[in-house]
Amino acid sequence: MSLVVQKYGGTSVADSTRIKAVARRVAHTKRAGNDVVVVVSAMGKQTDEMIDLANQVSARPPAREMDMLLTAGERISMALLAMALHDEGIPALSLTGTQAGILTDSSHGEAKITEIRGDRVSQGIAADQVVIVAGFQGVNPDSMDVTTLGRGGSDATAVALAAAHSATVCEIYTDVEGVYTADPRIIPDARKLDEISYDEMLELAAGGAGVLMARSVEVGRKFNIPLHVRSSFMEREGTWVKEEVMEEAIISGIAYDTSEAKVTLRGVPDRPGVAATIFQKLADAKVNVDMIVQNVAEDGCTDISFTVPDSHVDSAQATTTQLESELDATGTSVDTDVGKVSLVGAGMRSTLGVAARVFRALGDAGINIEMISTSSIRISCVVAKGVVEDAVRVLHAEFDPPVIAEDVG
Amino acid sequence: MSLVVQKYGGTSVADSTRIKAVARRVAHTKRAGNDVVVVVSAMGKQTDEMIDLANQVSARPPAREMDMLLTAGERISMALLAMALHDEGIPALSLTGTQAGILTDSSHGEAKITEIRGDRVSQGIAADQVVIVAGFQGVNPDSMDVTTLGRGGSDATAVALAAAHSATVCEIYTDVEGVYTADPRIIPDARKLDEISYDEMLELAAGGAGVLMARSVEVGRKFNIPLHVRSSFMEREGTWVKEEVMEEAIISGIAYDTSEAKVTLRGVPDRPGVAATIFQKLADAKVNVDMIVQNVAEDGCTDISFTVPDSHVDSAQATTTQLESELDATGTSVDTDVGKVSLVGAGMRSTLGVAARVFRALGDAGINIEMISTSSIRISCVVAKGVVEDAVRVLHAEFDPPVIAEDVG
């Protein structure tokens, strides 16, 4: 029997009517002859309401207690879904992260799953029950404290369970129809992709596409679990994320991200080991560095620019200010008024001239490129924040993705 | 160092303002040099809201899932209280029933605490933390499923923890000022008792006084933990429930209960073993029998009446109907239109004529007594439901409790 893991996000279980709709959908999958494991998020805005309460009682809520609080959310939605399934005549069993053996590290609020242990999920499946697991939460096995997994945590739970139990597919139900060639709020005629490779999805996620987080795609790729991103409000198929896609597109999609800032350390002596020093210090300060550009040296000095999430700007700046005296650099400048546009396509590998076409299209539209970074299947440009959406429009019009390469190597 | 266990009910933690007030109260107790363990209920009406949601998604929510749902309530209130305490500068640690080692039997929705195990509470105390434990919940150690303790469950958690950790006192904070001589809604000049013995409190609880459930008083008595019932909204002392009271009252208080029904099995052959048969069958059907009265036999037959909670009437009637043919009885009648009034006082033991005075006072007021049951410190009368409040008024006026006996044993 094939095992289907289904994950339903907060909007899919926002109220009792939607929970019953989800129950019918799960029941349908179960009656079709599949074993089913369901992962749920907290209902709608419940997490936000709980965060509000926390801020009302405390100026700085301790992270352990915040996790204790927030994990109440999935407890509510999973128990309600189990009840609704019983009413559909389908035996169901809800399990907390702890009960389902979702072990994590100790980083409250942004824990990583380290292992999936225990056999309650398997026992439930063997007993012909639909097993419902709380998303977004786990337990630190050393302290037995409850943890939460941070952004994209429920997806991570679902994909990890799918991997641990060798599921046929992990279905991610959400409020959009799948993965699009670009954000439909900017490009109204953006097209839904029928399929995309793990590598491309990873690049899109890193480029800012919010539909799936890179952490989930990585686990899917590692254990070769196909992910199916689809809408919980309609029947038709969404986007399959998997290893082998039928046809490689030159450009599968365009992502953008306006939540990063550019930090430049100016007048850095151009000698071996300097870059290593800088980025080791930043790593020590837990600053998440995305793109890095080093200018050509002049007079033995160079400027090094990198982008970081907005939330890391303060610690990045503190680090570079310290480095200024250490390295005899001349100063630090920070620009938060930037954005990144990324084109992703596995077909780029076998197609020449894509980068040149990108730069020309942006230049013709009068958009100045501040930084460039590329991988074999991605081209990213940092531009002024105010023209990010224009850049997406220009590039979507230029390439009209998905563009299927005629000759796939 | 003395250990104080404090329990705060739902109205005491109904919103963020009240949670902060509770935090200040706990902090005050801690700063006074006590170790403190706090037990909290769910916030205000949250449990009712969750039951509503359950009824929206399911006609008959499974008990296991109902417990999974409802236990989210204390998780929220205890995490918020822990945060508020941190803001008061008091390190605090919230623990679920499972984490605090509250082991129960498997009766979802009305589980009994079987044991308190584990050392996380002690570790927290040793680390100078205020330990906050979720009330009303535990875990069945065989299945590792979460259970709830039913009515009065948070009090039961508090008293059991106080017993397990040899607390100096278990303070029960509630929305009334203590234990009263009668329900102040009926007797506006009812007086708050400064102290009352465990035995009297047990009789009042059994008689319908809602302020404390018998299960908590029993544990307090067994382990000799003084209980202090008091208001969370004011500073002054409430009622101490303990072994030794300074002065024994003839009548400490009057309780009433209108949630019982009277069942009569008529024309039962008056032979040895018949009563045993009847009440064994009722026990097998899990019917909770309170008062029992057997009339004097006439023509070798008798009527046997007993009271049961309203919710047990159906199974009681099913049992007696089955017994009719088995015993050759003539029929069953059920009267749900009854109520019970109970007078409780340890001084009754040493004072003659109290019962006669009760019956005369009721008779003078034209109130007919349908059943009578007594213990050494209690007199209970079943009367028509419509005159229960009148009976309370008549008896409160007659005895004007608390009446201190002049010559105590």
Strand content of chain A: 25-35%
Structural class of chain A: alpha/beta
Quaternary structure classification: homodimer
Q: End-to-end span of chain A in angstroms?
A: 37 Å
Segments of chain A where pLDDT lies below 50 for 5+ residues? 405-409
**Reading side by side through the largest sheet of chain A, how are the strands ordered?**
3-6-2-1-9-11-12-10
Helix content, binned percent of chain A: 25-40%
Mean pLDDT of chain A: 93
Instruction: Please give the largest β-sheet of chain A.
Output: 8 strands, mixed
Give the overall shape of chain A.
globular
Total strands of chain A: the figure is 22
Rg of chain A computed from alpha carbons, rounded to a whole number of angstroms: 23 Å
Number of helices of chain A: 12
Largest interface (CB < 8 Å): A-B, 40 and 40 residues
